[in-house]
Amino acid sequence: MAEAPTRRAKTVTWDEPVEQLYRSWLRRVAAAESGHRRMAGQMWHRYLALGIPVVVLTTIVGTSVFASLTTNESGDPSTSVQVRVIVGTVSLLAAVLSSLQTFLRYSVRSEGHRVAAMRYEALRRDMTKTLALPPGSRGDAVRELDSVRQRLDRYAKESPTIGEHLWRQLEERFHLSRVPPDPLWPPDTITIPEPATSGAGSPDTTGGQDGR
Q1: Cα(212)–Cα(206) distance, rounded to whole angstroms?
Q2: What's the whole-model pTM score?
Q3: Residue scoring higher pLDDT (109 or 83)
Q4: Does 48 fall in a domain?
Q5: How far is the C-alpha of 141 from the C-alpha of 122, rounded, in Å?
Q6: Domain that holds residue 85
C-alpha cells in the first residue's frame, strides 16, 4: 500500500504584525540586558564598599593588638584600658561588616547579573541578525518566535531579579508597556505638513516646508 502523503505545516511569513511583535520583544531583551548590567555594577560597588573597610579594619585590629601588648608592658593602666576599648570597638565593627558582606552576597549577586546580561546580549545579537535579513530569508516566523520565547522564559527563571524601581526606568527608556503588547517604536508617528497656501488657495511653492 502506498503511504499517505504527510501534510507539511504552512510556513508563516513575516508580515507587519509579526515583525512588530518581534521588535517589541527585542526592546524587552535590550531593556533586560541594560538592567542586568546596571545591577551588576551596583552589586560590585556595594561589595567593594563593604569589603575594603573590612580589610582596613582587620589590619588595624591586628596592629592594635601589638600596640596593646606594648602598652601593657609600660605599666600604665589607663592607657591600657583605652587601647583595649579601641581595639574591641574596631574589632566589633570589622566583624559586623564582614557578617553583612557574607549575608548580602554582593559579589555572588554581581556575578549572577553579569552572566544574565551576557545571555541577553547574545539573544539581542541573534534577533538583530534576523531582522537584518530580508523577510524572505528569515525562515518560518512562528519557529523563530518560539525559539526566542523559550530562551526568554529560561533566562527569566535563571536570572536574578531586577529591582522594581530600575525596571520602571527601563520601561520608560525603551517604551515598554507594563502589560504587553508594547507600543510601536517610535511611539509618535511622523506626519508631513501640508504645503501652505497663498492668495486664492494656490499652493505656495516659494518657501517649501517651513521655509527649508
Answers
A1: 10
A2: 0.72
A3: 109
A4: yes
A5: 19
A6: 16-185
